[in-house]
Amino acid sequence: MKPAPFDYEAPASIEAACALLAEAGGGATVLAGGQTLMPLLALRMSQPFILVDINKIPALHGVARTGNATRIGPATKQCEGLENPLLAEHLPVLVQALRHVGHHQTRNRGTIGGSIALGEPAAEMPATAVALGAEIEIASIRGRRRVKAEDFYLGPYLTVLEPDELVVGIDYPDWPKGHITLFRELAQRPGDFALVGFVGALAVEGGKITRAGLAWFGMGPTPIKARQAEAALLGQAPATLDVPAIAALALADTAPFDDHHASAEYRRIVGKRLFSRTLCAALGQKEAA
Amino acid sequence: MSTHSITLTINGRRYAGTAESRHTLSDFLRVEAGYTGVHVGCEHGVCGACTVIVDGKAVRSCLMLAVQADGAAVTTAEGLAAPDGTLHPVQQALRDEHALQCGFCTPGVLMTLAALTANDAKPDEEALTAALSGHICRCTGYQGLRRAARRLAGAKP
Fold first, then answer.
1. DSSP 8-state assignment for residue B100
2. Does the domain at residues B3-77 carry the CATH identifier 3.10.20.30?
3. Does the pTM of the predicted model rise above 0.90?
């Protein structure tokens, strides 16, 4: 299994990368970490004329604070994210989720932005961006635009990105210090894609939940924002929250599917159970039998 | 289709060669540079047999283009043992624990464990075992590998 022939360019700037993407007229593919793209090339499911490697663009690397947000450069490697002090401080649930992305060996090359731009519905990074309310900045020779993560995904491996566009940054708004984090996934083996999983954050002030972000992965054609559950959580006191009712609402927005790993029904049953259990534990509630 | 002149360091030796854009690092190391200790199994990043160390990190060499390794320092299984044949501690641990049978997956496993234990690092058993989840062994199973990992973590096998 060898990839079909292609040209390779490694531009040194965002402008040069965008020019290459525009010139290729849809025949180019962006190469970030390559941990999903390389298998697609080897299997010839993807046959671009030209690969545009963005790893040599300094502006696309690293983590920085920008006002009330944390900005992740898309070419930041997953292994770098795991050890980044800014992420540990401001986005603890993202670090928690990163531990579940692929294997040690693929995290050493795989990038955070690559996972987000690709849009695998069972992947952790897209759902984390949706749950935390991230915004994705996109560049092309036509200019720049920003898209909310929740509006970015259209279907499996399908996003609002046009063929000439490049993700140049992902901005995660701040959550209050000490916010509650939620993360759980079920996979057949460590490193496999999740059969079902969710990620979330809850801000509690004055004994009430003041902000909630929740998203599922592996539970539909895209990451699924649990809008009904988010709305129902606002204003509630953590200690007296009706967890089963919230779990039912969280499930209501999902659209899981059958595949040869698990049925939709299985994903719903297990998803609801894991969600209830994780939410109870995070809120210090005892789980109802 | 473009070809590229690349220069990298393989097991401490400078190596200059040419790579077609689509050539993977694994094929470059085996076919062009002759390091057949790089075993190519699935060729799409699932089995872990082709794992090598690039700039200190264990990576799957089939999921990296050769041209991307330009300027990098690469270590393959051939680079582990001392020139006099003394086994690398990771090789010794696998040998002592009978952690291989046919040996096809072994070079990849060695490189993952060698990267994590380089510079006398002592990662805990959990970290080593978790990293081993990136390797598939189809004959002898994983208990020997787990014992070797425990030994490398400084615990009783």
1. -
2. yes
3. yes
